[in-house]
Amino acid sequence: MKLNSVRSFLVAFLLGSSGSVLAQAQQAQPAPAPQAPFTANPFAFPIKPGTQNFLSGSMGEIRPNHFHGGIDIKTEGKIGLPVYAAGDGYISRVKVSSYGYGNLIYVTHHNGLVTTYAHLHHFPTALADHMLALQYQKKSFEVEAQFNESQFPVVKGDVIAFSGNTGGSGGPHLHFEVRDSKNNLLNPLRYGFPEIVDQIPPTIYNFALNPQSIDARVNGEFVRREFTPVKQGTTYTISDTLSAAGLLGLEIQAIDQYNGAANTNGVQAMELKINGETIYRHNIDGVPFDKQRQVSIHINYPVIKLKNRAFQRLYVADGNTLPIYEIDNNRGRFRVEEGKVYEVVADLTDSYKNVSQLRFYIKGESSAYKVTAPPTPVTSTKIGHEVMESFLKITVADTAKVARNLDLYMGNYKYAVIPSYTTKAGSVYLYNMIGGLPDSAEVSGKRVRFPFSHLVPPGTEYLYSNRYMDITFRENSLYDTLILQTDRNAQDVFSINNPLVTLFQPAKVTIRPSKLPADKSKAAVYAMGWGKGAGFLGGTWDGDAITFSAKDLGKFKVLTDTVAPTIKLSGKSPNQISFKIWDNLSGIASWNCEVNGQWLLLKWEHKTSTLTSEKLDKTVPLAGDVVLRVKDAMGNEAVYTTKI
User: Fold this and answer.
1) pLDDT tens digits, one per residue of 308-320
2) What keywords is this UniProt entry annotated with (predicted)?
3) Average pLDDT, whole number, for the chain?
4) Which of 299, 305, 321, 307 lies closest to 250 in space, CA to CA?
5) 567, 579 contact by CB (below 8 A)
6) Per-residue pLDDT reduced to its tens digit, 193-208
7) DSSP per residue over 212-278, as a string?
């Protein structure tokens, strides 16, 4: 029988087949007893059930752009451990990919819950053959399949896969999730798996007080201040009473750990009490899958981007719609009044009910003008400014010994702003820009212009245009009112605020370069990021303008890619052929391999830039002319030929 006839027969047979996944027994040592009472557990542990396991990641852990949606179970640093069905049900969905979850299985259970198993290395034979046939039918490495309950039924304890390191995994492990019927991500540890031992309370590194009103002060200044508490038993505290005023928000940097593992994990729940009254609670134990990106408003996003330190807010910022909070009318913010003393207590609880406590005191100070430190003498007036959410903070180093009023201009209108306080750096003036967007400020004859373009409201679609850029913010793009700042420099780098301003839903952006590329079919938009790297965004040309989708704000530039990918043969034999492939700019988009004109599956592993073949019929050797075509995102194609 010819190769193509064998392939056609196997595709038809395998796609029409059904079968169950066989259970495999595992000898296990007794698991330690649970440390606390939990909800009755309908599930078995998916890795080495009945023995102590270790986690490298927990539910709700802060990741760069999402909450971690499950638990990461260690697999002894290797691939190929049996993965067991957590409960009775059926395999309802399977996905093969080099990115994200990698090779992924969904199991739908009779109780309505769904468990997911990610970064898998391979599947049992019946399921593996089905997915391989689907790949050959679609002539694609990345495929996804959905099944009904009769095709791949499973019983609790059946081996449904083998652990791996596929997708966005940073090392061998199993990512395990529990979801409800509404696709909310539930904490698997809510069921109290005895395989995980946790007797270690959370560790508190730092906390911060963040001003939330124009009259707010922390130790005399309108500034976010961080403090490092000292541990005394399970309580963290500082020796001094802090001085503050106005409306404040508390932020905490903390981690959790499990017995026998050095990994730093996320803290499950936090509660804030002011003078014994609870004003805020959160529990990261039911995050909607489509709202995971809102982690960037749950934390102080600029701090994690600049310092790689995750401070969770114990107040709910505007635009945060996560259903994980219990809050008062001030959304967890608290007001400090002059002359009063406040006891601030925050309880941090992990999934196994271990608790650490942060406790400190604040004495209310006056927010009236004062000199916190004599200003450093200067020979000429200097004006600096920064934007803190909607507040404009202007610092003036003046030649005058007494602080003067500052004139703030909005078009033809001028407003006198009195100083709020004076420091070594100069006198500080505060203004809430929700009241109107200033274009410049003047003091002592020195004038500075501001780069503010517009006030963009959240919660509605909004179009902004200027001579070189159009931006359409979707209804759910912004978390809060945006003080928009745009620019195009001499190198045709377009700026929209900076990467410290995050979006929930992408914005549609059109830019008009001053110098058009010679070949627009090879030119696209790239995000310039923090350093020298460029991230491909693509875009569609219409005349002299190109439109693209921006998931984040920052710097953008049109670059041209005319260089085809690079292909290098790694090895070849009648059983398998493999290649290394790279691209210089826009990235690998597609590949196609044929042996004697017949399509051959090449599995892609982006972490190692490797393509590896897998035959549909393992009995037929690879033989003949091999042609590999690889294209990048701009359509540049490289062709590699060889013989087996």
Assistant:
1) 999 999 999 888 9
2) Signal
3) 92
4) 299
5) yes
6) 999 999 999 999 999 9
7) -STT-EETTBSS-EEE--EEETTEEE-SSPEEEEEEEEEEEEEEB--TT----B---EEEEEETTEE
Per-residue buried b or exposed e for 158-176, using 16+ beta carbons within 10 Å of the residue's own CB: bbbbbbbbbbebeebbbbb
Three-class DSSP category at 131: helix
Q: Compute the distance between CA of residue 30 and CA of residue 195 in angstroms, rounded to an integer.
A: 9
Q: Residue 345 contacts by C-beta under 8 Å, 6 or more apart in sequence?
A: 272, 273, 274, 276, 357, 358, 359
Q: Do residues 396 and 407 make contact, with C-beta atoms less than 8 angstroms apart?
A: no
Phi, psi of 520, deg, nearest 5: -65, -25
Q: Which amino acid, one-letter code, is at 41? A: N
On whether the CB atoms of residues 424 and 414 are closer than 8 A, the answer is no
The predicted structure's pLDDT at residue 6:
40
pTM: 0.89
Angle at which helices 125-138 and 3-15 cross, to 10°: 120
Which residues in 304-420 belong to E strands, given as ranges? 312-313, 325-327, 334-336, 341-349, 355-364, 382-388, 391-397, 406-410, 413-417
The number of CA neighbours under 13 Å toward the Cβ of 369 is 13
Q: How many CA atoms lie within 13 A of 309 on its CB side?
A: 14
CA atoms within 13 A on the CB side of 189: 32
Instruction: Give the C-alpha distances (Å, rounded to integers) separating 247 from 212, 218, 275, 343.
Output: 5, 10, 15, 15
What is the end-to-end Cα distance of the chain in Å, rounded?
Answer: 20
64-73, 237-246, 587-596, 600-609: the lowest-pLDDT one: 64-73
- State residue 4's pLDDT score: 45
Secondary structure of 14-38 in HEC code, one letter for each residue: HHCCCCCCCECCCCCCCCCCCCCCC
Place of tokens 């090879």: 522
In the three-class reduction of DSSP (H, G, I as helix; E, B as strand; rest coil), residue 10 is classed as helix
Structure-block tokens of residue 382: 């200097």
pLDDT digits (tens, 9 = 90+) for 398-424: 888 889 999 999 988 999 999 999 999
Report d(CA 365, CA 183) in Å as an integer: 47
Task: Give tens-digit pLDDT for 143-169.
Answer: 999 999 999 999 999 999 999 999 999
C-alpha–C-alpha distance, residues 47 and 82, integer Å: 7
Token pair recorded at residue 496: 């929209």
pLDDT digits (tens, 9 = 90+) for 198-235: 999 999 999 999 999 999 999 999 999 999 999 998 89
- Other CB atoms within 10 Å distance of the CB of residue 620: 15
Q: How many CB atoms lie within 10 A of CB 380?
A: 9
